[in-house]
Each structure stands twice: as structure tokens, then as C-alpha cells.
Amino acid sequence: NAGVMQNPRHLVRRRGQEARLRCSPMKGHSHVYWYRQLPEEGLKFMVYLQKENIIDESGMPKERFSAEFPKEGPSILRIQQVVRGDSAAYFCASSPFVPSGSYEQYFGPGTRLTVT
Amino acid sequence: GESVGLHLPTLSVQEGDNSIINCAYSNSASDYFIWYKQESGKGPQFIIDIRSNMDKRQGQRVTVLLNKTVKHLSLQIAATQPGDSAVYFCAEIGGGATNKLIFGTGTLLAVQP
After folding, report:
1. What whole-number distance in Å separates Cα of residue A19 and Cα of residue B49?
2. Are residues A103 and B102, on separate chains, in Cβ contact within 8 Å?
3. Cβ separation of B94 and A110 shorter than 8 Å?
4. Which of B27, B100, B102 is best to mutate for the A interface (most A CBs within 10 A)?
5. Considering all CA atoms of chain A, what is the largest pairwise distance in Å, rounded to the nearest integer?
6. From the CB of residue A53, how many other CB atoms can be counted at a distance below 10 Å?
7. Do A20 and A78 meet the contact criterion of CB atoms below 8 Å apart?
8. Residue A50: which of A31, A36, A33, A34 has the closest Cα?
9. CA-to-CA distance for B17 and A53, rounded, in angstroms?
10. Does B102 touch chain A (CB under 8 A)?
11. What tens digit of pLDDT does each residue of B47-65 get?
12. pLDDT tens per residue across span B13-28
């Protein structure tokens, strides 16, 4: 019974390159959240997606960042033209659709992005 | 803007003692709170949650207390064990329809054998 999977676990990119982070939610989960964690800080919300829809991207930087959750396949967080300030751990969380309002989100192990 | 913050950045306890981790929140409209545990190199792990219509909830060795009057949340861990060493975050649901979590900055719990 696999949990939330993220890959790669570690990613090194030079400034100006593109970073692609993947997240496969738990089986049966249709909601995906992306969070960013800077060293020694809490997680900050970035974006919330359902299949083929971006529901809330209020935490996404206006430029260079994009996210998708296609009908088939994992959710992708893409960072174009990375800069050193993008170095962080990026966590994906998934949750099922529960009409009664269960709020629990299950987190993946994260992708640690280092920009050199 | 609204925020969730922690009083103590680090907490050192002896194995077997009880631990109390505190959290202050500023959004009086928040109606759901969660405590997460994060071990080094791993993602946050759900510990316990509480809704605003409750003031106490107990789990296995853990208790969460909610004081809405002073907007304070605490996590109590009984008989702390070395495996409890981690960073603990409180988080609140940010409101609206998206259920996004707003995290505090974390408290490092160090359990001394």
C-alpha cells in the first residue's frame, strides 16, 4: 500500500536550468498539494490541484513556477531558469475527496533541490 | 497576514519525561489544527488533529490542547522516547475551500537518553 511518492529525492541544477519534480499521490487520492520548505523553516503552501485543474495557486511565485496534475500520470512541479533562492525541499501531499470534510493530508518524502 | 508561530524553537527533555510543545495562532476563524512530526530527511507525519469545537483530544501517548480564548495550541507527549526526537509543527487549515495548511516554523524536540 504505497504512500505518496516523489522523485527524484535529490536534484541538483545549475542556475538557469529547469527543474521538474514529480509526485504520485496515494492510490485513490485525487487532490494534490505542493509545499516548499526552506532550511530551518516551516512548510509554505504553493499550489493545490485536482485532476486536470489548478484550484488554488496563491502560493506560487508569479514567474518561472508552474504545476500540473494531468488525467494520467503524476503531478509535476516545474521550475524554469532556476536561481539559488529556489534551493529548498519541495513536498507533495495528497488527500482523498471526502465530502464530510476530512482534512488530513499525507506527505511524500520530498525532493531536495540544490541550485549551484 | 495570518500566521501560526511557535514559542520555543528547541526543547530538550530526558527520556521518560513528558514533553510539552506550544504553538500560538493568530487567525481566530481557524477551525481545524494539526500537529505534524518531521524527522530529518523525511516528510511531515500526521500525529493528531483537533477541531475548534473541542478543547482536548487524546491519542496514543499524545494529547493536544486547544485554548481558543488565547489562541494557543499545545502538544503533550507522555513518557518521551528517543524515537520522538524530531521537529514538530503545528498547522492550521487556511480557510476557504482549498484546505491548504499554514505551518508554524517548528520546534526541535531533542530527547536525551
Report:
1. 34
2. no
3. no
4. B100
5. 45
6. 9
7. yes
8. A31
9. 48
10. yes
11. 999 998 999 999 999 999 9
12. 999 999 999 998 878 8
